[in-house]
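TL;DR need structure tokens for one chain.
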Amino acid sequence: MKARLIFKGLALIFSLALLGYLFHTSDLGGSLNEAWIDRRVRGHGVSGELLFLLMGGLFTAIGLPRQIIAFLGGYAFSVEMGTLLGAMAALLGCMLTFAYARFFGRELLRARMGERAGRFDRFIHEHPFTMTVLIRLMPVGNNLLTNLAAGLSSIRPLAFFSGTFIGYLPQTLVFALVGSGVHIATTQKITLAMALFVISGALGAYLYHRFRHGQSLDTRIDAALDETEPSPDESETKL
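>> reply
TL;DR here they are.
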């Protein structure tokens, strides 16, 4: 796995931790956190949890990085609850995007994403659940485009959604740890989160190489994980 990929992931962790620190110690935190997390979510029991799920699902459905939702889950709840609710919110967003592509957007999206959907179909054909888990473990790729491609493909929803939820958990735990570190034991939690990110990313890259059996999900993902640049022909392929 390329060093720059690890660096980008660690930089995201650090930036979210810094953002959380600013929320906690400055006027920025007093306005944004109290206006939503503190006022609407934390301490509101089931209603706060449901609001978090709804908002997290809607925002990830339109492309907000799921890592940010996990960070907010860790901030609003405990690490355990933040991880669970963060993964569930991201899964809800996945379901919404998948359903749109499968039932409403096929004609609109087919011309733009037909090749990507075809690659996805070939990639997951023999083992849809396992390969979906593998895709979600990788430290690269676009969550929104993957959900759209899956909706256009022939994969069964149950295999895709269950594999997605399990594959989401490692990175969700990482960013929930960062979010929870805003309150206490910041250094230890961020250090642990960084270590877990490197481990989960390396595992995803290893499994991708081990089990893809000659198939390619995305030439840009291949280039990133193989530490090579795509050929001119590959770089011109519209994914």
